[in-house]
Amino acid sequence: MKAKYLSILVLLITAQNVIAQVTFKTAVSKTELGLNERLRIEFSIDKQGGDDFTPPDFKNFKVLAGPSQSSSFSSINGKTSYKLTYTYVIQPTAKGTFTIPSATVLYDGELIKSNTVRISVTDAVDIPEDPNDPRYVAQQNIHLVAEVSDMTPYVGESISVVYKLYVDINKVNVQNTREASSPSFNGFWNQNIEVKKWVAKNGTYGGKPHRFVIVRKTVLIPHKSGKLEIEPLEMEITAGIPMGRRDFFGNMLMNDVNFTLTSGRKIIRVKELPTENKPFNFSGAVGDFDFSVTPSKTDLKANESAQIKVELKGQGNLKLVKLPGISTPNGLEEYEPEHKENIRTTMSGLKGSVYDQYAVVPQSRGKFKIPGVSFSYFNPKEEKYYSVETEPIVLNALTGVEVSDQNVIGNNKQAVVSNEGDIRYIHLKTSFVSTLKDEDFMDSNLFYVLMILPLLSIPLGIYIGKKKQQRDSDIIGNKRRKADRLARKYLSQARKVLGKKEAFYIALEKALHNYLKAKLHVETTDISRERIAEILKKRQVDENTIQEFGTVLENCDYARYTPSTDVMMKKEYENAKRVIAKIDKQL
Predict the structure, then answer these.
(1) N or C: fewer beta carbons within 10 Å in the chain?
(2) For domain 293-313+324-343+350-397, which CATH number applies: 3.10.350, 2.60.40, 3.30.70, 3.50.50?
């Protein structure tokens, strides 16, 4: 018995020594940094066999890159060493002293933790003016600018914001860009105008020639007065700085740097609409408009409807305007209006028309007058109010019962409807029609058609059966159809599990692979991403779409090991839907 306990004790001590020999540690490039600086953090294990690496929660930091995985192996004088490293690049989001928790890895069935790291974050630091520092050179020659069309608009007046990226191409080379933070427009109605393709143009910045591209365009309509703030757009830039040397083939050697650009906050001072000469019926329409009320017809029969269109055309805050209604007299029935919009968004604002269309039906013969409708708006260019009064509309019901003045008979004051031609409505002859049928159903054409119909369905059933048999024997086609169904299923499943990181990215990756399997007729798990890109290119899918698809696939791989928010997952889902739709369209 003692020998048994002794052997168990020896095994436990041996296992503990094996685990103790494994080193899993966290190392950082610096422990103190400014709010605008980046931090390189590495998690390394010195034994092979480490699985299921789980990064820590990077709270108060945002992950800019990673995880990138590297390994090294060496053998010197019979002594071997091994190292597996997971690397991230992170940037603080707040000031203070923070502790980055331990990462974990599974080794030989045991969960091993790395050491924690304490980081101190201070105010943003200025980059020293060193022309030999690549970061300083990049920030001096790459600029993100927000250009606002009007800094002092009226409430309801359309303005635009254009975000431009300026680059001095003689000194730097922009290699990659990514939107890190979208601007917010609190206090504004806003709508983006799609920038389909970045087109480089010549321009000037700070009096020096630059090339620039428009990265985003947005139309804004303030809905309250006062000082409103537009939050900045932030972009992560990877830039190449020439080192002054060339490689063997004569290509300029570049020193790559990563940094974040911001467009800066913009303060918009929105003016209240003037109260002087403000019409009593003004309801907030701001712009340059034409207002009209038109009938589809004015002469109609009893129980025949006419359409009355109340329409506003022009340029301004069309989507925010409530159109005035019409008033109908007694005897004219009015139905709920149908609202329609035909609006396009341009850099100068919203243009087009909106209208309410009413259906009205006269209940009797006669003339019915619909009063004119008044509408007021403010023109911000002229700084002046305008009021429009439409002409009354007279509808003439040509037939039907005519309603005249009420006559009072006796003491009960009963209303009598008189008609000059009453005698004409006394019918002296009948028009009796027998309900008996001359033809029996048994001998009718319908009887024989119904008899023959089942016989005609037999060849149709045989045809459908053959088609089904052909479809079932089409193995490749069935695989494609099954893959297509699975792609839709997993895409739907990914939407349902938004917020659950692991399940979401697994479902999204399966959806992408099954989509490619259905469209390209390949097993995507057996080929590389380069091969997928090559096949898509042969199918005439453009480079940008191929790159977007590859990015979504990469993000699915990396995101399982990095912290992800609900917003990030929703963005990945929307990106996957968009790129699938683009490939679908091009194929």
Answers:
(1) N
(2) 2.60.40
